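Operator note (shift B, R.M.): manual run for Microsomal glutathione S-transferase 1 requested after the automated queue skipped it. Running by hand, logging everything below so the morning shift can see what happened. Input copied straight from the record, untouched. If output looks odd, do not overwrite the archive copy; leave it for review.
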Amino acid sequence: MAVLTVTNPLIQVYIIHSAVLALKLIAVSSMTGYTRLTRRVFANPEDVKNFRGVVKLDDPVVERTRRAHMNDLENIPAFWILGALYVTTGPGIGWTTLLFRVFTVCRIIHTVVYVLPVVPQPSRAIAYGIPYIINWYMGIQVVSYYINNL
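Run finished. Output pasted below as returned.
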C-alpha cells in the first residue's frame, strides 16, 4: 500500500491537480457572476434592484456559462474522491501524473469550448469524455484493488 503522507509524490501530484481544479471551479463560478453582471440579467429580484437589470432565467449566454459550471460540479468532485482513493492503491507515479494531468487539462478545455461555442463539436464531447473515462478507470481500479486485497 502507498504511504499516505504529503512527502509522497503521488499525494503531491494529487494535491496539485485537485487545487488547480478547485481554482478552475471558482473561476467558472466567477465567470457566471460576471456574465450576469455584464448582461444585467439576474435570477433574483433583489439583484435587479441593486444592479439595475432584469430577472431572466433563460438568457442563453448566462445559461451556457452556468451549465459549464454545473458540469464541473457534477464531475470534479468525483475526481477528488476517486483520485484520493486511487493513490491509496500504489499506482506508478508516471501513469498517475499522466491521468491527473490529462483529466485536468481536458476539464479546462471543456470549459473553454463550452463557454465559447464557436469551437465545433465534437470538441466538447471529447473534452468531457476523456475525464469521464479516467474517473471510471480510477474507480474500477480502486474497487478491483481492494476486492483482491481483502
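Quick read of the result: DSSP finds five helices and two strands in the chain. The two ends are 13 Å apart (CA to CA).
Leaving this for review. - R.M.
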